[in-house]
Amino acid sequence: AWPDAVTFGMSCGDYTCNIIEESSRGTKVMINEPHGQSFEVFIPMPGKHNVLNTLAAVSAARLMELSISNIRDGLSATHLSPHRTHVSTHGCLTLIDDAYNAAPMSMLMALKMLMDLKNRNRCVAILGDMLELGSIEEQAHKELGETIAILRPDLFVGFGPMMELACTVASAAGVATYHFDSSDEVASNLQMLLLD
Predict the structure, then answer these.
(1) In b/e form, how buried is each residue of 47-72, taking b as 16+ CB within 10 angstroms?
(2) Residue 73: count of CB within 10 angstroms of its CB
(3) Rounded distance, CA 124 to CA 6, Å?
(4) Is 127 helix (H, G, I), strand (E, B) or coil?
(5) Predicted pLDDT of residue 131
(6) What is the distance between the alpha carbons of residues 18 and 34, in angstroms, rounded to a whole number?
(7) Could you tell me which residue, 19 or 92, shows the higher pLDDT?
(8) How many C-beta atoms surround the C-beta of residue 170 within 10 A?
(9) What is the spatial distance between Cα 94 and Cα 24, in angstroms, rounded to a whole number?
(10) Confidence class of residue 26 from pLDDT cuts 50, 70 and 90?
(11) Rounded to an integer, what distance in angstroms lies between the CA atom of residue 97 and that of residue 196?
């Protein structure tokens, strides 16, 4: 019989994990099971949020009695849809493309991932409006500006009418900020922005 509930979390729950190594390619973690067994897996997606997603999937898979080997095989075959946590390197630049259907939580996770990958390099966040938020769109963009003010990238570039709200909040907190009306304007100024 299955338990009534199975919990998971980074440090507490039936299933927990320890991050061994993080990179732009993904994250190597040690999964700790409820009965004391541990096993290592590589998650081919960067970001702590993807570690939690994987931990949830592993918890369910182990309840369904999938082997560790099956889990590893499944993870190694994982490919995200375009524009979802896609990390690529272009010379000395690392680009995180997480533009698909951006929402407040996905923006937060992408920004945290950006800051985790920052190392000693310059960190530039280029963000467009979050669409289809209905009555919360103004508040969500202002809160995004507050988050950017806390995380403090080296430069924040926003585009679109709603992202101007985030730029205003972040700029007021001392973050170097540019706002443009469209992605075309950002593209026209990209070299200046990245070399500034």
Answers:
(1) bebbbeebbebbbebbeeeeebeebe
(2) 11
(3) 39
(4) strand
(5) 92
(6) 14
(7) 19
(8) 27
(9) 8
(10) confident
(11) 21
